[in-house]
Specification:
By secondary structure, this protein is mainly beta. It has helices at about 1-5, 10-30, 160-165, and strands at about 35-50, 55-60, 65-70, 85, 95-100, 100-105, 110-115, 115-135, 145-150, 155-160, 170-175, 180-185, 190, 205, 210-215. It has three helices and 15 strands. The radius of gyration is 36 Å and the shape is elongated.
Length: about 220
């Protein structure tokens, strides 16, 4: 009896393993409760909720990668079915906060989330009215300003309080001509710091002002 079992043992063992594998395939593939599953990754925009009127939130991360548990034969989940939300209702005052991302995905199993939280700055939006100054550059030896005006003389600045606090002045820049001349042009006013650096994040309204100026030859040089 033992000799019969040993005869062609490898072939018999292979046939037995093949039969078991075939049985398992047809048994499990036909069972709807044992559906194959896999991980699906989605890149989802990070949105803000609970932000008070007159405030702005600034953060670097704009998308979150959400990994969900999905069935292999089911329709793939679309990014618009998942939301990555920063709820700022609990952060009423300006400052820097680390806020966890809340994933809203009904009937979906979330496996992982990256990043799990976002560091953001919360600041108040403000506006100021400030006069427009003219900044001249060039050679003042031969040419002087006879008259100059800006219309409108006042502009409105809008931005976060941190940026507005850095603004020293709003100015239009004019290069002195080489000879007597008159200009009448629309020029963009710049909101600048005390060092003359423009703060581009601040909105200046209107974005163009009319500048009229008359330049004459200087009498200090004795020119005729």
């Amino acid at each position: 009896m033992l000799s019969i079992v040993r005869r062609n043992f490898r072939l018999k063992a292979f046939a037995f393993a093949l039969a078991v594998a075939a049985w398992a395939y047809f048994h499990f593939s036909a069972n709807p409760n044992l559906t194959a599953r896999f991980d699906q990754q989605l890149s989802v925009p990070i949105v803000v909720t609970g932000l008070r009127p007159g405030y702005v939130a600034r953060f670097t991360d704009k998308f979150a990668v959400v990994t969900i548990d999905a069935t292999r034969n089911a329709t793939p989940v679309k990014p618009d079915q998942v939301e990555a939300v920063l709820n700022l209702a609990a952060n009423p005052d300006p400052g820097v906060f680390n806020v966890p991302i809340q994933v809203i995905a009904p009937n979906l199993q979330i496996r992982s989330l990256a990043p799990a939280s976002v560091t953001l700055s919360l600041d108040r939006l403000e506006e100021r009215t400030i006069p427009v100054a003219i900044a001249y550059s060039g050679d003042f030896k031969n040419i002087v300003v006879d008259s100059a005006s800006v219309d409108p003389a006042l502009v409105t600045l809008r931005g976060i309080a941190t940026d507005l606090s850095r603004i020293e002045s709003v100015r239009v820049e004019i290069t002195l001509p080489m000879k007597a001349a008159t200009i009448d042009a629309m020029i963009r006013p710049l909101a600048v710091t005390g060092r003359g650096d423009e703060i581009a994040a601040v909105q200046v309204s209107p974005n163009l002002v009319r500048v009229r100026a008359r330049f004459v030859r200087s009498t200090a040089t004795g020119a005729k």
